[in-house]
Amino acid sequence: MAPKTPKKLTPKEELFVAEYLISLNASDAYRKAGYKGKNANVEGHRILTKPYIQAAIGKAQAERFERIKLNGDDLLRRAETVLMADARKLTSHHIGSCRYCWGVDHHFQWKTEREWLAEDPEKEPNGGFGYRITNKPNPNCPECSGLGEPYTVFADTDDIPEDVAVLFEGVKETRHGKEIVMASKQAAFDTLAKHHNLLITKHELTGKDGKPISHDMKVSAKVVMVPPKDESVVEVKKIPKGEGE
Question: I need a labelling partner for 176 at 20 to 30 A (CA). Which of 46, 102, 151, 227 fits?
Answer without folding.
Answer: 102
